[in-house]
Amino acid sequence: MIDLPVVASMSVTPVSSEAVDRDRPSGPLHRDVHLVQSELAAQLFVVEGSQIYDIDHELAARIELLTSSRSDAVAGLLDEFGVIRESREVHQPLESMPLRSLSLAVAQKCNLGCTYCYAEQGDFGGSPKSMPAETALAAVDRLFDGIKPGERVHLAFLGGEPLLNRPVIRSATIAAERRAVELGVQAGFAITTNGTLLEPHDADFFEEHGFAVTVSIDGPRDVHDQLRPFKKGTGSFDQIMLRLQPLLHQQRRMQVSARVTVTPRNLELTTTLSDLLSAGFHSVGFSPLLSSPSGRDELEAATLDDMLAQMIACGAEFEAAIVDGRRHAFLNMVNAMQELHVGSLRPYPCGAGAGYFGVSADGGLFACHRFVDDDAAALGDVAGGIDQPAQTRWLRERHVDFQSPCRDCWARYLCGGGCHHEVLSRSRNACGYIRGWLHYCLEAYARLRKDRPDYFSAS
Amino acid sequence: MASIHPQNLSAQISYKAVGNPPSTMPVSAISNCNPGLEFDFRAVWKSLIEGVELHEAGLTNDGHIVLDVDPDGMAHAAGVRTFDLLISVDGNKVVAEGDSPGSALEFSNALADVFDKLGSTLPCVFQSANDGSRIEVSLLINHVLDNAFVSEALAEPGQLTQGLCSPWHADYRECGCYYWAASRPDFINAVPVPGTDAVQGQSWMQRDLQSNNRPDSRPYPNFPIPDPDANPPQDEPPHFTYQEMYLQWEQKLQFIRQGKVADPQ
Predict the structure, then answer these.
(1) Is residue A51 helix, strand or coil?
(2) Sign, CA torsion B172/B176/B182/B187
(3) Is the pLDDT of residue B219 over 60?
(4) What is the pTM of this model?
(5) DSSP annotation of A377
(6) What count of other Cβ atoms lies within 10 Å of the Cβ of residue A57?
(7) A144: which DSSP letter?
(8) How far is CA A220 from CA A217, A223, A226, in A?
(9) If 0-12 CB within 10 Å is exposed, 13-18 middle and 19+ buried, where does residue A250 land?
(10) What is the pLDDT of residue A377?
């Protein structure tokens, strides 16, 4: 949604315990480099700068030998081969950042009763409430505070279920669009919804304003209905798919994507991916459930292995499509290929608490939509703006260089240290999974660079 | 010999190929494209238009000199030949402005509009050197970059630096206009003018050290081009010429000490 890391919408959290990767290709752990080797080729991933090189087996063998010794020996070899490593700015925690992206928790309540929900069935553990229009409009004012022509802002609506407060969504969107036109600013809009309350006129509105619409769907009907039932217990799948049809048919400026939360109960990802793409979603992304308030349905080491295998199987379908010259909208791969090609460096996993904030129904500013009403990540309010000392403290504490054990992990600037919310609530329990996925993505990048270089020049 | 090849964009930007000087890296370059300093980027502009090679210093008030034409290309088929002049691209003139002598940076400025349209096929107008007739043909404008590299289709290895045949002499004179990186004084023999805020003095490369604050103290252009056979003889140019810098620098240049021409003794 906002500034997604390579692990894209996976919101995962790494642990660099060497034991996790000892017998895997994504190991061993080295803080400067990572090797990806096959019989035919070898790749070198250089952590500083997220650089990717094709190397021959002779050089791979030399690096492999050195990675078991001192890291400055590796540095000397990289110097010898002309690999410049200058990315000092990434190591310096941000002091502050202007607020340019907000998600409004317009309804802190929900009509579904998903067992794993981070918002605890919508109310974040408090009493159900709706955001008043004046709070939403004050948030819009805050979004444009001090902005210059040509800049971009991003306004998202989340909950709970945001469509329980449709009038506020509309008035905030129209106000933001008007301000954007007046000020020569580009505004982007997004909503994350469970889809059960969509009306045909919502499709018109979202299309008119170019919304990125994310619908939470957890798989084929039977598993979805188990994981995402109405509060009264009945399944929601049929109602969602019915109400989605106008959006799926109308999407031009609007893009309708499916977000699948992966639990031990819906691990058939290849089936889910093909079903949802066939249903007409613009893209489909998977996120592992690593932390739920109730502890139910969380993925553990063994099920994360199963998920990794399924993700790689989905990735293979993506690769086959791209080699054939077909579009494929497996979002985790689309994002990973783009980020690896550019060489993204992420000292933070996302923009939470930097340029992006979640606004509670009461007008509080929190590090993101997941932290709504959580004092540990309270960073000001829409009336007074960002609490600057609190933001500076947040940005310093959350920088990946200051996370343990991230600072010794080769994947740290691709992953950014993992979703702040999950790390703070459950620690890092999926590092092996993340590195396994990124290792596969590096392999896939090498294959696609060779077979379809045009895929990258086009992007 | 072990081998390594950068793949993604950050590796392409960060990789220093064996034999390349520091000036080829963004982190260690002055990034001054003026010909002679680090590389001559005009070598890339030469091949910007498919099937036509432009002269790297052939921009005139009338058009841009065509140095070569691909016999199998669209331009040749349309009748464009060596020494024709390229007049405009997509309706915008690519000529030197007014009385500009066609200084090195003029080439880039003249093509500014074209750089927004890389990869497009655009109408190009030429003037025949043979009979002055107008030739219009749509030609592909090549991409300058291939990912993060300068496209090899436009400049092969070595081509960006092949024009740097006499670097220090040329640079020393070229950067005679108060350029921050030049390691010599610009304004010499400077003394305050009593009763005013002014200072008088001379350009370091001025021949006539009797005249102060000459209006032509900006040391280039290199005009008039010295012609020893001119009849009547030319006036002496106000500054040392490039030719003098190449051939007689030890006689022409003097030691400057504390801002003043020093006594050779």
Answers:
(1) strand
(2) positive
(3) no
(4) 0.81
(5) G
(6) 14
(7) T
(8) 8, 6, 10
(9) middle
(10) 95
Report in angstroms the alpha-carbon separations of A342 from A88, A336, A411, B29.
Answer: 18, 10, 15, 22
Per-residue pLDDT tens digits for A206-225: 999 999 999 999 999 999 99
pLDDT at A192 over 60: yes
The tokens for B238 are 């106000």
Task: Mutate one of B1, B7, B23, B118 to test the A interface: name it (highest A CB count within 10 A).
Answer: B7
Distances (CA, A) of A126 to A50, A360, A374, B231: 42, 12, 11, 99
Cα separations in angstroms, A121 against A21, A159, A228, A370: 35, 10, 10, 12
Structure tokens at A338: 């783009």
Stretch 385-414 of chain A: residues touching chain B, C-beta under 8 Å: none
| Cβ neighbours of residue A12 closer than 8 Å, sequence gap 6 or more | A287, A288, A290, A415, A418, A419, A422, A430, A433, A434
Q: Where are the beta strands (DSSP E) in B7-133?
A: 52-59, 64-69, 85-89, 92-93, 121-127
Chain-chain contact of B15 with A50 (C-beta, under 8 angstroms): no
Q: Mutate which of B3, B12, B14, B146 to disrupt the A interface (most A C-beta within 10 Å)?
A: B14
Would the pLDDT of A316 be above 80? yes
Report how far Cα B111 is from the mean position of its chain's Cα atoms: 14
pLDDT of residue B112: 85
pLDDT at A134 over 50: yes
Query: Is the predicted pLDDT of residue B150 greater than 90, yes or no?
Result: no
Strand (E) or helix (H) holding A256:
strand A255-262
Q: What is the ipTM of this complex?
A: 0.87
Structure token pair of residue A221: 């009907």
| Burial class, B178, CB count within 10 angstroms (exposed 0-12 / middle 13-18 / buried 19+) | exposed
Contact A53 B9 (CB under 8 A): no
In DSSP terms, B162 is beta-bridged to: none
B211 burial level (CB within 10 Å; 0-12, 13-18, 19+)? middle
Chain B residues within an 8 Å CB radius of A55? 2-5
Contact B191, B199 (CB under 8 A): yes
Contacts of B52 (CB under 8 A, 6+ apart): B66, B68, B69, B70, B73, B75, B80, B86, B124, B139
Does the N-terminal peptide bond of residue B224 adopt cis geometry, omega within 30 degrees of 0? yes
Q: Does A86 touch chain B (CB under 8 A)?
A: yes
Containing B200, the helix (H) or strand (E) segment is: strand B199-203
Contact of A307 with A433, CB cutoff 8 Å:
yes
The two three-digit tokens of residue A391, written as one number: 């933001």
The pLDDT score that the predictor gives to residue A447 is 95
